[in-house]
Amino acid sequence: MSGGNLVLSAGKRDIHAEIRLTGSKSESNRALVLEALSDGGVKVENLSEAADTVTLNKILRSLVAETPITIVDVGPAGTAMRFLTAFAAVKGIEAIITGTARMKQRPIGLLVDALRTLGASITYAEADGFPPVNTHPGFRQQTRVVSIKGDISSQYITALLLVAPVLPQGLELEIEGELTSRPYVEMTLSMLSQVGISHEWNGDRIVIPRQPFIITTLTVEPDWSAASYWYAMAALAETSAISLPNLRKYSLQGDSRIAEIMANFGVTSTFVGNGLEIKKEPKTFVPKLFDLKDCPDLAQTVIVCCAALGHNASFTGLETLKIKETDRIQALQNELAKFGVKFTADGTTYHLDSSERFFPEKIRISTYEDHRMAMAFAPLALVIKEVEIEDYLVVEKSYPDFWTHLAQIGIISTEQA
Ligand SMILES: O=C(O)C1=C[C@@H](OP(=O)(O)O)[C@@H](O)[C@H](O)C1
Ligand SMILES: C=C(OP(=O)(O)O)C(=O)O
């Protein structure tokens, strides 16, 4: 990303807008892999504009174009890294899959081990257990049963499930221990069903026999993680009525839980014929414990919003945040401290103490190459006069129109020279 900063200032705290969100990055990335595996039998509509999706799309097309060896760069896209490793390994494509400096610190060893057990030939181009990975030709399935720990990243599990229908013997995937980010696995299984691939849960095992894809079109829903920032805006505004077309209550995306979470802060959700309307209503906050194990991408939105409102709360299910685009726990602690809020660990429970929070005239937020840091802290512009967001283009990873949409609610953005 190119490092410019953006200064945000809101003239007023009344928000009335209709925001058209791009498609879900998670659904899009799955759909693209299914499209590639089905040799085009599966088509995709309303693909996300997220940079991660654009990158994955380009790489999948280059990999199937059969050049002798390909070096491909996923940038900061974790799902692309994991999904492509499984795709290239099982298809027997010679490829080196690399990414940003941070991507080289995000573990992939469990997925590589599982793929090797299945019969894939994969080596590490640099450090063992981390990208870049080198996939080699000659996949020969050795077994249909493989186990993987469930509490590090559900993306490993999704990567394996997506390729399962093309494995000669199919797949019996045993999930060891707790399954984190479970709704993402459910999303994968639902999307597989939509393209004609059946599965069965057998205790802790997911069984997917080898099966053909049906010819069909997948339509990607708008991105609920992106919607979460609009909930935070609504919560911090004086009055708000935001309409988010095409979002559905019964979504494949676990981040639709934001509706229930934000009800605690007085944001109401009404599903109408063509989407969702959110409004701010008076509500007394009752301090509580939020478990975000199923929806880790909502953590920054909810924690920053809670801090800005001056509420105290506790959070669990944050273990995976340390291996995302940045160590999100550390990043939150650093940035919340800039307005007097403490975020401390007590074992695996985190306490947010906003009792000494204050609003300075100006605040400058570092974003740590993490799109969600930029978007989660941007709503502060509704309570702090000048909010400077470093490296603002970082949002392109999942939500390129974010700053344009902010302008729609009257938040003025000025680029810093
Ligand atoms: O499968 C997916 O699309 C995702 C799974 C989650 O990762 P983990 O399973 O690593 O928590 C989530 O944080 C990520 O943004 C997208
Ligand atoms: C964690 C995220 O993405 P990924 O793991 O795909 O890089 C995210 O979008 O918040």
From TrEMBL:
Signal peptide location: none
Residues in Enolpyruvate transferase domain copies: 67-406
Pfam families recorded: EPSP_synthase
Keyword Transferase found: yes
Gene3D superfamilies xref list: Enolpyruvate transferase domain
Superkingdom: Bacteria
Known catalytic reactions: 3-phosphoshikimate + phosphoenolpyruvate = 5-O-(1-carboxyvinyl)-3-phosphoshikimate + phosphate
Active site: D297 (proton acceptor)
Pathway: Metabolic intermediate biosynthesis; chorismate biosynthesis; chorismate from D-erythrose 4-phosphate and phosphoenolpyruvate: step 6/7
UniProt entry tagged with the keyword Transferase: yes
Localization per record: Cytoplasm
Keywords from the UniProt entry: Amino-acid biosynthesis, Aromatic amino acid biosynthesis, Cytoplasm, Transferase
Residue sites binding 3-phosphoshikimate per the record: K25, S26, R30, S153, S154, Q155, S181, D297, K324
Residues bound to phosphoenolpyruvate: K25, G78, R106, Q155, R328, R372, K397
Entry's Gene Ontology BP terms: amino acid biosynthetic process; aromatic amino acid family biosynthetic process; chorismate biosynthetic process
Subunit details: Monomer.
NCBIfam families per record: aroA (TIGR01356)
PANTHER family linked to this entry: AROM/DEHYDROQUINATE SYNTHASE, PENTAFUNCTIONAL AROM POLYPEPTIDE
Protein name per the record: 3-phosphoshikimate 1-carboxyvinyltransferase
Source organism of this protein record: Hufsiella ginkgonis
